[in-house]
């Protein structure tokens, strides 16, 4: 049964990736380019007069570097989580995440926007020093702890907007047992999907607790790059050498995310989005189990 479940998960994840790559090709083919001028107009009409100060994780990645480029052209002050000595934060360590929260609170005025973009995929079985499975720690728990901490110290502006970069592979995620999910490792594919599902849960639960802020989770698109370095050799070659000419570019993905963030007042708080449309990805989950898992994460981060 274990092997059957593993192969089903692998098939499911690759099927999702293939389907979304095809859909996004046709959507992007006929779509007006999301240049910085268009994004600026969206900011001016939907920015809610928030401080032009944004915290971004994973800013050195494929999508992150394009986020930086747009944000610099938009004259944003970009805040990158770091330790007191200025070195990068290890998102697998809750202690370092809390240190970063304190540094942000001490060094910056209130933050208007947050994009939780950092992530890893298909790592081998590893537990962090906090005992959390690595994908869930880096992709989800660290970001939940970061947002929880920023709210607790008053570092977020009133009506701040927070975007969790999730993935369509969250459709393959499972929440079988809220009390073992954080530590359980079945495969890199399942762990990645579970971590992205947990980000969707986080957006929903945060929105319930802090309705004055806006929380959304979003699929950025199937974007080639280093994230896929641990995938199947054939798939890695295809997406980075062949499909790269057809799938969504980091530039388009970053533009889509920023348009959503700056349009958040028009969006459903706590929802998960794909190409600007809300998707009921959490409808299949037990609401009580989702809430229990979220509360468990918050307790681990406190």
UniProtKB/TrEMBL annotation:
This is SDR family NAD(P)-dependent oxidoreductase. The chain crosses the membrane at residues 6-26. InterPro entries: NAD(P)-bd_dom_sf, SDR_fam. GO terms for molecular function: oxidoreductase activity. It holds the Pfam family adh_short. Keywords: Membrane, Oxidoreductase, Transmembrane, Transmembrane helix. Gene3D superfamilies: NAD(P)-binding Rossmann-like Domain (3.40.50.720).
């Amino acid at each position: 049964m274990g092997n059957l479940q593993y192969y089903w998960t692998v098939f499911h994840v690759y099927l999702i990736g293939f389907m979304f790559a095809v859909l996004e090709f046709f959507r992007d083919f006929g779509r007006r380019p999301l240049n910085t001028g268009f994004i600026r107009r969206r900011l001016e009409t939907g920015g809610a007069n928030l401080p032009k100060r944004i915290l971004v994780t994973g800013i050195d990645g494929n999508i992150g570097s394009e986020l930086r480029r747009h944000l610099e052209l938009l004259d944003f002050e970009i805040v990158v989580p770091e330790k007191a000595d200025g070195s990068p934060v290890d998102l697998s360590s809750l202690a370092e995440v809390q240190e970063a929260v304190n540094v942000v609170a001490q060094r910056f005025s209130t933050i208007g926007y947050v994009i939780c973009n950092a992530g890893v995929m298909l790592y081998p079985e590893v537990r962090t020093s906090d005992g959390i499975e690595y994908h869930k720690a880096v992709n989800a728990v660290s970001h939940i702890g970061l947002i929880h901490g920023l709210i607790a110290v008053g570092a977020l502006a009133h009506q701040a907007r927070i975007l969790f970069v999730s993935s369509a592979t969250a459709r393959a995620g499972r929440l079988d047992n809220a009390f073992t999910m954080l530590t359980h490792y079945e495969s890199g594919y399942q762990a990645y999907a579970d971590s992205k599902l947990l980000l969707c849960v986080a957006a929903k639960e945060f929105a319930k607790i802090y309705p004055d802020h806006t929380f959304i989770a979003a699929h950025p698109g199937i974007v080639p790059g280093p994230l896929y370095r641990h995938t199947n050799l054939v798939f890695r070659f295809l997406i980075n050498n062949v499909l790269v000419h057809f799938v969504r570019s980091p530039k388009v993905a970053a533009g889509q995310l920023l348009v959503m963030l700056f349009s958040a007042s028009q969006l459903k708080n706590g929802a998960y989005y794909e190409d600007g449309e809300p998707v009921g990805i959490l409808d299949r989950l037990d609401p009580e189990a989702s809430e229990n898992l979220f509360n468990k994460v918050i307790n681990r981060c406190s």
